Amino acid sequence: MVRLMLLERLLQHLPQLHTVGGVQAIPYMQVILMLTTDLDGEDEKDKGALDDLLAQLIAELCMHKKDVSKKNERSSINEVHLVIMRLLSVFMSRTKSGSKSSSESSSLISNATATALLSMGAIDYCLHVLKSLLEFWKTQQGEEEPAATSQLLKPHTSSSPPDMSPFFLRQYVKGHAADVFEAYSQLLTEMVLRLPYQIKKIADANSRIPPPIFDHSWFYFLSEYLMIQQTPFVRRQVRKLLLFICGSKEKYRQLRDLHTLDSHVRGIKKLLEEQGIFQRGGTVTATSGSALQYDTLISLMEHLKACAEIATQRTINWQKFCIKDDSVLYFLLQVSFLVDEGVSPVLLQLLSCALCGSKVLAASSSGASGGGSGGSSQPSQSKSSSKKSKKDDKEKDKEDGTGSQEDQLCTALVSQLNKFADKETLIQFLRCFLLESNSSSVRWQAHCLTLHIYRNSNKSQQELLLDLMWAIWPELPAYGRKAAQFVDLLGYFSLKTPQTEKKLKEYSQKAVEILRAQNHILTNHPNSNIYNTLSGLVEFDGFYLESDPCLVCNNPEVPFSNIKLSSIKVDTRYTTTQQVVKLIGSHTISKVTVKIGDLKRTKMVRTINLYYNNRTVQAIVELKNKPARWHKAKKVQLTPGQTEVKIDLPLPIVASNLMIEFSDFYENYQASTETLQCPRCSASVPANPGVCGNCGENVYQCHKCRSINYDEKDPFLCNACGFCKYARFDFMLYAKPCCAVDPIENEEDRKKAVTNINTLLDKADRVYHQLMGHRPQLMIQEQKVLASRKELLEYDLQQREAATKSSRTSTQPTFTASQYRSLSVLGCGYTSSTKCYGCASAVTGHCITLLRALATNTAIRQILVLQGLIRELFEYNLRRGTGAMREEVRQLVCLLTRYIQMCKSLKRIANTVCFTRC
Fold first, then answer.
1. Contact 572/657 with Cβ under 8 angstroms?
2. Partner of 725 at 20 to 30 A CA spacing, among 147, 292, 303, 796?
3. Nearest to residue 59, comparing CAs of 79, 84, 78, 36?
4. Separation of alpha carbons 354 and 328, rounded Å
5. How many angstroms separate the CA atoms of 876 and 807, rounded?
6. What pLDDT, on the 0 to 100 scale, is given for residue 367?
7. What's the confidence (pLDDT) of residue 47?
8. Own/partner pairs for 504-510, CB < 8 Å, 24+ apart?
9. How far apart are CA 697 and CA 498, in angstroms?
C-alpha cells in the first residue's frame, strides 16, 4: 500500500517537471522505476496503479498531436519527454529475474506498456518524429565540418559523475559529464527507433496484444535513414528495426536495394535535367549539349557506381527494379551517347547486369579456383567435409533457382528494351560502342551486351538486329582495326539467324563487295609493293610511310602507366603553399601518389587539394595566383606523420597544367619556438628574432636559394625555388598522354582556336616536307638491300645446282621467278589515293574472318563461289599480307572447295592465274 501511495503522490507532481529539465527529472523517474518493480499482476489495485501511471506518462508525450516539428529542438520539456520515453523503453526491456514473482511482474509491465503505447498511437507518433528528424539530419549532412586546427579543453569535474542508470550508462555519463543531453537529436532518434522495435517484439511474443501495423511510410523513411552518411550511430538500430519488420534478410535487402536504386536513379535524372538533358515520353533530349562539367560528372559517377555496386552484388534486385520501372534501361541506353567516355563503362556495366545476368558477368571475370587438400584425412574431417558438401548442395540448389529466375528476368528485360528502342537508337549504340570507341574493353563490353540482347530476343527482333548490322557494314572501312568485335557478332548472327535465299545472297554480295573494294585500295596504294615486300621480311605493327593522316591508325589505345611528375613537367612556379606545374602535353590522369620524405614533426601537411587546368599557356606564370582558372579535382586529408597518400580520382581528368595546394597543416607551436640552425654557419639561433649572432644571417631565408620572403616569416614552401624544409615531396601520376584542345567558351577563345589551327597546319607542313625529303633515300636503301638479297639468292641457287649436277635447269627458272617476284620491287604504278593502307588492311582481315564464318554454311558457300570469291582470293589475298593473314585465306579457300565441282573451278582458275603470271 505504501508503494501505491508514494506512486500516486509522485504522479501528482509530474506536470511540474516541464520546467526543471531532463537532468533533474532523472532522479524522479528512478524513484518511479523502483516503485514499479514488485507490482503484482494478479492484484487489481496494482494493475490499476500501473495503468494510471502509463496513461499519465504517455499523456505527457502528447502523442495525439500531429505537429512534431519542434520535437527536434532541445528544450526543458523536450528533455523531460526524452527521459519519459527512455523510462517506457526500460519498462519494455525489463529482464526476468530468478524469482517467479519478479518474472511475472516484468511480464506484466512490459505487456501493459506495449499495449498502452499501441492504443495511444505510438507507432504513428514515432514515424512523425522520425520524419521530422530526417529533415534535420539531411541539413546536417550538407554542412561541412570546419577543419579546426585546435580545440579548447573541456572542463573536468572533480566529483564523480552521478548515477543515471538505467537511463544512461555510467560510461556515457562520464564522457558527457558537462552536458548529458548534448547529443539530444541523436538520443531522440535512437528512442523513436527503439520503441517500435520493442513494441513489435512484445506483440509477436504475446497473441493477446494486437500486432502493430507498419505501413509503406515506415519502409520508405527507414530506407532513407540508411542512405544518410551523417547518422552512422543510428544505422545499426535502423537496420535492426527494418530487418525485424521485413522478417527475412532477403526481403530486407531487396527493399533496401530497391529504395536505394530508386533514389539514385532520381538523382541521376535530376542532375541531367539541371544540365539540359531531359527525358520526355521515354525519349532523352539534350537542349544544351552533352559537355558536362567535371564536378557534374563526379556527382553522376557517384550515383552510377552506387547502382553498379548493387547490380553487381545482387543482380536480381537490380533486374526487379528495372522490371518495376520500365523506362530505366532505355534511359541509360540513351544517356550513354551523351556523356563523357569515362562514364560509358559504368553505364554498360549496368545494362549488362540487367540483360546478361550475374552468371555471365562472373564467368568473364573469375578464374578457376584451387582444389582440395591432401590425400589422408581424419574421420572428423570426413564428417565435416560431408556436412560441408551438404551445405554446398543446398547453396547450389538455391543458386540454380536464383539463376533460372535471373534468366527469366533477362528475357523479360530484353523484350522491354526492344519495345522502347527504335532502329535509330540501336544503330547509334552499335556504331558508338562497337565501332567508334577507342577502348577495347568498352568494345568487348558492348560485344557481350549485344550478344545477350540477341540471344534473349524473339525471332523477329533477331532479324531486325541482323539487318541493322548489315546496314552498318558498308561503313566498316572507316573504322579499321576497331571493327573486330562488330565483325565477330555479325558472323555469328548471320549463321544463327534463319534467312531466305534472297537475304543470304544480299549479305554475301555485301561482304564480297567490301573485300574487292579494299583489295583494289591495297593494290593501287603507292606503298603497296613496299609493304608487301617488307611483310615477307619482318613483322611490323604500323604503316609508317603514309603521308595521309588516319585518325584510326594514329590513335592507338595507350594504357595507363606510372609517370613521375618531374619527367613530364616543362615549367614550375611556386607560392608559399602551392606548386603550379605545366606539363609537356595533355595527359589523362587517373591517380596521383604523393610520397613524403624527410618529415619533420614541427609542421606537417593536413590537407592537400589537387587542381587541374586544360588550357594552353605560353608560361605557367599566367596561371599563378589566378584561382578562377583552375578546376578542383580532389581534396584529401592526411593523418599526422603520414608519409604516403594516394589521390584516386573517381573519373580521370584531362590536364595540361596541375596545381598541388597544401592548404592546412598540423603545427607544433612549442617546437616552432625552439632554436633554429643558421643556413650559413650552422650555428644555433633563437627563433625570435631569427638573426644569427655569429654571421648576421636571417635564419628564415631559404636553405636552398637564400631567398627571403618578407611577406611571410616562415613559409611552408619557398616561393622562389619551391624548397620545403619540413618535408620532401615526390609525385607519381598514373596517367597516359592524350590529345586535347582548349575549350571554346567565348569569341576570344574562338579567335585563339583559329590561330592555333593555322599554326599547327604550318608546323605539320614543315614536318611533312622533312619526311618527304627522307623518302627517296629510304627507297634507295631498300632497293639496294633487295638487290643484294637477289644476288645472294642467285648465287646460292647456282651453287646448289653445281653441287647436285641436276639436269632440270629448264624447269628451275619458273620457281626462281616466283621467288624473285615476291622479293623485288616492280613497277609501283603510283596512283593518287587518300585511303589509309592500315585501315584497308585491317578491314580486309575482317572480311576474311567474316567470309570464313559464312562459308561454313552450305548455301552461303555456293553463293560465294558463284560470286567469284575464289578468283578474288587467288589474285589478291593469297599472296599479300602477313603470314597469319595468308594462312586464314588458305583456310577460307579450303572451305570453299569442299565439293567436286568447286574443285574443278579452283583448278581452272589456278591454271589461268599461273599462265597469266608467267
1. no
2. 147
3. 84
4. 10
5. 34
6. 38
7. 84
8. 504/857, 504/859, 504/860, 504/863, 505/863, 506/470, 507/470, 507/854, 507/860, 508/854, 508/860, 508/863, 508/864, 508/867, 509/867, 510/470, 510/473, 510/474
9. 91
Cβ-based neighbour number of residue 564 at 10 Å:
11
Q: Give dist(CA 408, CA 14) in Å, integer.
A: 63
Query: What does DSSP assign to residue 163?
Result: -
CB atoms within 10 A of CB 267: 17
Please report the pLDDT score of residue 899 as a whole number.
54
Please list the ranges in the chain whose pLDDT falls under 50. Answer: 95-100, 144-149, 289, 366-388, 806-834, 900
Report the pLDDT value the prediction gives residue 823, as an integer from 0 to 100: 33
Scan for cell 577563345, then name that residue.
749
The x, y and z cell numbers of residue 114, run together, are 506495449
- In angstroms, the CA 864 to CA 852 distance is 11
Element spanning 448, H or E: helix 440-455
Q: Give the gyration radius of the chain's Cα atoms.
A: 40
Residue 897 is classified by DSSP as: T
Report pLDDT for 587: 92
End-to-end CA distance of the chain: 129
The bridge status of strand 631-637 relative to strand 561-564 is unpaired
What local confidence, expressed as pLDDT, does residue 340 receive?
A: 82
| C-alpha span between 878 and 891 (Å, rounded) | 10
Q: Which residues of 710-732 are buried (b: 16+ CB within 10 A; e: fewer)?
A: eeeebbbbbbeebebbbbebebb
Map residue 169 onto helix, strand or coil: coil
Grid cell in block for residue 438: 577507342
Q: What's the confidence (pLDDT) of residue 812?
A: 41
pTM: 0.80
> Amino acid identity of 601?
R
Helix (H, G, I), strand (E, B) or coil at 2: helix
By C-alpha distance, which of 230, 226, 231, 235 is closest to 260? 226
Q: 887 φ, ψ to 5°?
A: -65, -40
Strands (E), 777-867: none
